[in-house]
Amino acid sequence: MITQENFEAQYADPIEEQQIRKFVCDEICRQIHRYIKGMSGSHNTMLKFEESLKNMSVPDKERAIAAYIDLNRHSLDGLDMKMVLVRAMANYCDTFAYMMEMINNRHKWGYYLKAIRDSYFRFHEIFEENGLYGIKDHEGKVLVSPSYEFLRTPYVYVDDFRKMPVIAQKDGKMGLILADGKDTVVAPFKYDDISLRDEDPYFVARLGDRTVLLDTAPKGRA
Q1: What is the tens place of the pLDDT at every residue in 40-81?
Q2: Are 174 and 184 spatial neighbours (Cβ–Cβ below 8 Å)?
Q3: Model confidence, pTM
Q4: Residues 194 and 204: beta-carbon distance below 8 Å
Q5: 32 sits in which H/E element
Q6: How many C-beta atoms lie closer than 10 Å to residue 119's C-beta?
């Protein structure tokens, strides 16, 4: 009996899998393009997204898009991953009969469906330890140590794939850190409050009676 576990080892075709993953990636990119257009209405924003992906390999695109989806989970609203897989198979197959054979192969279908879900649904989580909070990635790797009284991962992502800082609270004060495994401080822990804006600079802080815009762009970038 063929099981899901031994299908990959015995029956997966590397060329077929490579092409299916490429077509799946193309389909999900189209979905995100529609999402960006619907959210911002900006052709330039879509061009920036495309430019960021242009020279990436398919595995690199999968990782980048998974990171985008993690912080823009509404980007796949209404998208059925089964339909994504059907379209990918249709693009790969040269005849209707071949396509139906692939779709009706229960083990192949299950293998590919799991593979694309594992590739694109890689969600981080906030965890608690001794009353303080940290962040782990989808594999359980600690991205932010459990050292903070409050964490907020912004559900917004710049379309050139710049990683957004995390809003954190320590000793009663707010600051910004990177989820880079090092707790790199982007804005010091001295503010009374930090909130999000819809445009760059994306963070606005309150310090007493003053309001301050926090520039978190990497040095050397506009």
Answers
A1: 556 666 777 778 888 899 999 999 889 888 888 788 888 899
A2: no
A3: 0.75
A4: yes
A5: helix 14-40
A6: 19
